[in-house]
């Protein structure tokens, strides 16, 4: 059987892991064995938290909409139901932005929602 020298391939593989470990503290950034573990864990967290980020932003938008709706005399659920009845198709991200940046416009949207409920 022929001898296989794996210098190039192994070095390339290790360099890829150590590049991903750049910025880590201590031996985690320059020891291959340690870097493999922490990079794998970091990539797992990154994958998971891309989903969590969407969840957290939705919660933030709902909180902002609820606060603004209550300031105009509506609960969040009533507000959203009123918008659905009226046929207003603004998503939560847009509504939260309007509530935060332009309260006067949001007040008009609240009156629309109230009129649909009455």
Structure description:
- This protein has 118 residues and is mainly α.
- The chain has a single domain (7-117), classed as Orthogonal Bundle (c-terminal domain of poly(a) binding protein), CATH 1.10.1900.
- The protein has five helices and no strands.
- It starts with 6 loop residues before the first helix and ends with a helix.
State the gist of this model.
By secondary structure, the protein is an all-alpha fold.
Helix/strand class: mainly alpha
> Regions with pLDDT < 50 over 5+ consecutive residues?
none
Q: Describe the largest sheet.
A: none
N-end to C-end Cα span: 86 Å
CATH architecture: Orthogonal Bundle
Q: Would you give the CATH topology?
A: c-terminal domain of poly(a) binding protein
H-E order = HHHHH
Q: Count the helices. How many?
A: 5
Question: CATH superfamily, please?
Answer: Ribosomal protein L20, C-terminal domain
Helix content class: over 70%
Number of strands: 0
Number of domains: 1
| Residue fraction in strands | under 5%
Mean pLDDT: 95
What keyword list fits this structure?
118 residues, mainly alpha, c-terminal domain of poly(a) binding protein
List the helices and strands and how they pair.
Layout lengths: L6 H14 L11 H40 L4 H11 L5 H10 L1 H15 L1
